[in-house]
């Protein structure tokens, strides 16, 4: 189905609404039918070097920036930026370059990473962006019950994504007045099970154990884990 590109362009700060519409209608849209910032929502990445350069150029022009203006904002020379846009550089830009570009091109850092081929890093950054966005929305509704629930959800996400923290401590949900605890195949993990799991993780990632020790972040489970592994 053919769409009117102008109808999808950013107007009066309605970018989020436009993206929501594009996501809903993505199957009916072609890359040429949408503004540059929406390309990741209608075209599967990664792009090749030439395509990615053309996309960067389209993003810059969409923001009304000249090469000189973007150079001044990012600290990269005009020739450096131009070489990426024209595909003269045969390698994809590094993540730190894309991070700076994302601040001025009106597109998420995670989207730039994904379309450049940094899929794993893009997935991680997308998660971080979602948490930050959640935190921002929470701050706008400070004091409300909804905000309290969202705040707990953010803290819970942080809790469960740190495996050691998740295994060591049950999470208390104040709003539901109940604990959330680790389980395996539907069976709650007992204290000795958790210590065994942590021992295995410590053996897999000894470098992180050393960093943890240096930072002085050990707690009661570390001593119990050490004791359990010696028996």
Tell me briefly what this model is.
The protein has two domains: 5-123, lambda repressor-like DNA-binding domains (434 Repressor (Amino-terminal Domain)), CATH 1.10.260.40; 143-231, no CATH class. It contains 13 helices and four strands.
Characterization of this structure:
With about 230 residues, this protein is mainly α. The chain has two domains: about 5-125, 434 Repressor (Amino-terminal Domain) (Orthogonal Bundle), CATH 1.10.260; about 145-230, no CATH class. It is about 60% helix and about 5% strand. The protein contains 13 helices and four strands. The chain has helices spanning about 5-10, 15-25, 50-60, 65-75, 80-85, 95-105, 110-115, 120-140, 145-160, 165-170, 190-205, 205-215, 220-230; strands at about 170-175, 180, 185, 185-190. Strands 1-2 form a two-stranded antiparallel sheet. Strand 1 (about 170-175) and strand 2 form a beta hairpin. Helix 3 (about 50-60) packs across helix 5 and helix 11 (about 190-205) packs across helix 13. The chain is elongated. The model is unreliable at about 1-15 and about 225-230 (pLDDT under 50).
